[in-house]
Hints:
By secondary structure, this protein is α/β, with parallel strands linked by helices. The protein is about 30% helix and about 10% strand. The protein folds into 2 domains: about 5-145, Oxidized Rhodanese, domain 1, CATH 3.40.250; about 150-275, Oxidized Rhodanese, domain 1 (3-Layer(aba) Sandwich), CATH 3.40.250.10.
Amino acid sequence: MKTTDTYTHPESLVETAWLAEHLNDPDLRIVESNEELDVYGTGHIRGAVHIDWTRDLNDPVQRDYISPEAFARLAERHGITPETTVIFYGDKANWWAAYALWVFRLFGHERVKLLNGGRAKWVAEKRELTQEVPSFPQSRYPVPARRRDAEIRAFREDALRQSEAGRPLIDVRSPGEFSGEVTHMADYPQEGVLRGGHIPGAKSVPWKKATNEDGTFKSAGELRQLYFEEAGLKPDEENIVYCRIGERSSHTWFVLHYLLGLTNVRNYDGSWTEWGNSVRVPIAVGA
């Protein structure tokens, strides 16, 4: 196999066939995280627990993530320890699975993997689903000393400095959202964004360009062509990705960090619902 066809961290992905053979591994925990919260109850991979991205990962009052203490309790409730390998999968081509994985990394959990192709591929292959909700003995998870916000998360001020300095910004939304023609995806609710467009200097690389039709990731060579040759990203530069609310950009963050090996990529999770409502921030429109 050519070097250009090898992911930097191929161990960060597992295939459906592999997972089907390792459902009973005691050191694994499978997590399903979906946009549609009732999907889990219709049938899920045996042994998979459900993490609700709204209730379990986000603070119930302010727009932020849960505290380190709450994260430790979440992990303990599902029998997860720092030594547990957590495999994430979900609907929408793994948007929210990648988002949950990214949040776990915010709290320093190292052993994370994504199921290539997500829920759709598992279902398409007619693999086993169950409605039985698993129960695991409560574990002990040390409260993380901090959230790694400065390392893999970007805030509005960071994105503004990135824009003003002409450093790489990747907008992973649809072309219509990028141009300002629309402020949200088709068939999605309008979340009250007052302005459409994109952050000045951002390049449009829709998240879906990184995947095949079945939701699996394209080859390393294709991804390098997309991000390094076409989008002009450079491994030695600081990179920021964003979308509408941070889930699609988590998917692209996974691609850039784990599959292409960038160590200096951050996800601006405030994304366009924050930027498009902020007073006196610059906005660009058009393709």
